[in-house]
Amino acid sequence: MVDTTSMKAEGFVQEAKGRLKDTVGAISGDAAMQAGGKIDQLGGRAKHEFADLYDANESRLEAVAAFIQERPFVALGIVSLVGLVIGRLFFRKRG
């Protein structure tokens, strides 16, 4: 399991470092430092967004798992119906 809280914190720290490098690079005229700062900002933002996405999907998966455990026959019926519909759609008799 992924610790999303620490991942979000790392993302914020990396983004803040990137902003600092970007600003120092702009003031000093160091284009490489400025570019590195922008890359760090994007990386930090990506970590934070991934953590948010993981949280949302993890809660959905937990809800599905709970539904299957609470109502296994209903879940089996739903899966069977979906399989039947997909089978009818893709494997129609040609004739």
Automatic annotation (TrEMBL):
TM ranges: 73-91
Pfam families: CsbD
Keywords assigned by UniProt, alphabetized: Membrane, Transmembrane, Transmembrane helix
Top-level taxon: Bacteria
InterPro entries, per database record: CsbD, YjbJ_sf
Domain CsbD-like: 8-56
Family listed: Belongs to the UPF0337 (CsbD) family.
Protein known as: CsbD family protein
